[in-house]
Amino acid sequence: GIQVEQSPPDLILQEGANSTLRCNFSDSVNNLQWFHQNPWGQLINLFYIPSGTKQNGRLSATTVATERYSLLYISSSQTTDSGVYFCAGGYNFNKFYFGSGTKLNVKP
Amino acid sequence: DADVTQTPRNRITKTGKRIMLECSQTKGHDRMYWYRQDPGLGLRLIYYSFDVKDINKGEISDGYSVSRQAQAKFSLSLESAIPNQTALYFCATSDFSDQPQHFGDGTRLSIL
């Protein structure tokens, strides 16, 4: 299967700081999503981004499909941004693979 | 109401019991999926279904079975539960292969 590597595995930020999370894929994908898992375990869909750049408020994401990586940018972080961020990708959702996540802790 | 509903939300049961987790959706999507998440890890695909007559094994299907009763309903069964099946289980749906997946809130399953 496709290997999905996320970095960093853990991240501690002071409120207001910016951060970049990275996701590398071992093979080409045509589906790619970023999720935020909140402390209650719910998975929140942040971006569907198989290629290109998207922005939603303080969050933005960029995928460079030819180089098999994606980046998630968080600007002006808030304590509510804490949780685990996952990227996942695959081909036509037949086989959809998740990374192990980046655990973010934003301190007030 | 949630678009993808999982029941139950929490379940504690004993080794050897038969368990059924249910998923229903109001999004009208043809594709449905079951995932499992172990602590500190990402999700892994158990089974997926592209329509009522099409069911496929995922990455970790051993010990599980599924039933697609209708377009809107997809159930996951553990025929004889064992402790290492203790995990958080998610159901998801999608429309086409180039559309995002939408997840339910998960079912926490503990097998003693």
Q: What features would you describe in this structure?
A:
The complex is a heterodimer of chains A (108) and B (112). With 108 residues, chain A is mainly beta. Chain A has strands spanning 4-7, 10-14, 19-25, 31-37, 43-48, 52-56, 59-64, 69-74, 83-91, 95-98, 102-107. In chain A, the strands form two sheets. In chain A, strands 2, 4, 5, 9, 10 and 11 form a six-stranded mixed sheet that branches. A five-stranded antiparallel sheet of chain A has the order 1-3-8-7-6, with no helix packed on it. In chain A, strand 6 and strand 7 (59-64) form a beta hairpin. Chain A starts with a strand and ends with a strand. The model of chain A has no long low-confidence stretch (mean pLDDT 94). Chain B is mainly beta and 112 residues long. In chain B, 0% of the residues lie in helices and 55% in strands. The termini of chain B are far apart. Classes of the chains: A mainly beta (108), B mainly beta (112). The interface between A and B is medium-sized, with 24 and 25 residues.
Short description:
The complex is a heterodimer of chains A (108) and B (112). Chain A is mostly beta strands and 108 residues long.
Mean pLDDT of chain B: 93
- Secondary-structure element sequence of chain B? EEEEEEEEEEE
Percent of sequence in beta strands of chain B: over 45%
Query: Low-confidence spans of chain A: pLDDT under 50, at least 5 residues?
Result: none
Alpha carbon gyration radius of chain A: 13 Å
Mean pLDDT over the residues of chain A:
94
* Structural class label of chain B: mainly beta
Q: Gap between N and C termini of chain A, in Å?
A: 40 Å
What low-confidence regions of chain B span 5 or more consecutive residues with pLDDT below 50? Answer: none
Structural class by helix and strand composition of chain A:
mainly beta
User: Shape of chain A from CA axes?
Assistant: globular
Q: What is the element string of chain A, with H for helices and E for strands? A: EEEEEEEEEEE
